[in-house]
Write a structure and sequence with these properties.
The structure holds two protein chains of two kinds. In chain A, 34% of the residues lie in helices and 18% in strands. The radius of gyration of chain A is 20 Å and the shape is globular. Chain A has one domain: Rossmann fold (3-Layer(aba) Sandwich). In chain A, strands 1, 2, 3, 4, 5, 6, 7 and 8 form an eight-stranded mixed beta sheet that branches. By secondary structure, chain B is an alpha+beta fold. Chain B contains five helices and five strands. In chain B, the strands form two sheets. A three-stranded antiparallel beta sheet of chain B has the order 1-2-3, with no helix packed on it. In chain B, strands 4-5 form a two-stranded parallel sheet. Chain B is elongated, with a radius of gyration of 19 Å. The chains are: A alpha/beta, B alpha+beta. Chains A and B meet through helix 1 and helix 4 of A and helix 1, helix 4 and helix 5 of B.
Amino acid sequence: MKGYHDIVGDGGSRILEQVAEQRARINDGLAGVRHLVAVGSGKGGVGKSTLTLHLAGALRARGLRVAILDADFNGPSQARMAGVQGALFVPGSHKVSLPRTSDGIGVFSMGSLISESASLEFASTAPGESQTWRATREFALLGEILASFEWGALDVLLFDLPPGTERTVQYADFLGPQTSFVLVTIPSEVSRGVVARSVAALLARRSLGEGGSKGPNRMLGYVENMSGYYCRDCNAIKPLFDAPKQSTLEIPCLGTVPFDPELARRCDQGIPFAELTDTPVRRALNDVTGRLLETLS
Amino acid sequence: MKLQTVVPPDRGSLSVVYSCPACGYEMAMLTNAYETQVVQSLGVRIGPATDGVAAEAGGKCPFPGMIPSSEGTGGHRADQPIAVKWTAAAEARLTNIPEFVRPMAKIGIEKFARDRGSLEVDEKILDDAKQFFGM
């Protein structure tokens, strides 16, 4: 009988080769995507998901082909907001079809599969030790999704990232330098401070050097969300946070977007961007989208 | 050898026990929880590719007549949805779905079929589902 040291390589599992094959499948699946844009922050609760959806809607309204990958597997919100809760993942002859909103935005969200009363659970042989493997498993799942779904020809694929500075960097590492970043903050000192750390963490990746699969990511800029709130009664923007007007983030500002309670309600109901009335908030979102496109081109 | 039991993780180690149906001799495969989990977390398959070898090996098993069918005797419990069969072609397409989400996706598709009065998922049902959800 063979002993442990008699086994050549890894016993036929081809672990390294399989990982390389996965990466090749991901690259193949994304070959038709022109721009990969990750919307992150580091800070939670600043409106990353809402902004991602509205950016997608505004891009779509300009005739662009857009999809969203809700990368927040543990707290997915895009399924509800985009109106694809309960949409099926239907396998085609080679890839899995992407659920779509009524205005044609492709959306992958774990929220399509998992009800809001359930959490994402992985079968494990090491229960109670998830700190040792969970992040690896989630990124492997992200890779499988990128490789398996039919992204097709897209102008922009938006990644809605989970909160956490370290997660933002991990996504930058996983997605590679072809993915550009937009960071979201709100005009509070606390939020700006956390987002500044994310900027610093992403800038630190410059040490990886230009070129290659592990180079730094391009930072397109930041959006200051909830910059006041829109009062429909008086059709005016009113202050929401008592913070210095100017942010000190060392990346370009793509614009500011006021909070609109009516918009939040519509998000909860999955009403598409195209059906929003012309308000200062919608115009602000359009301005941000315009600057985003200018920066990308 | 026949799969006897899978002992749930005990202090992190999984035991897969096989036994000889003739003499009762048992053999167990024990896993190192941490190594197995970390490698599995990469989303890879562990073990050499079979490429049909397993099917051939199954034909050479000396105990095929002694192993009871794992299909069970059937029967439908009132609290469970009626079983839906998959054609080979539809099942082949199902493998395109990432393994982790496959069971959940499968349940959804089977419900879609049942809702349309079908107890079989074939490629037409899959295409109908795509059309229904505007894909």
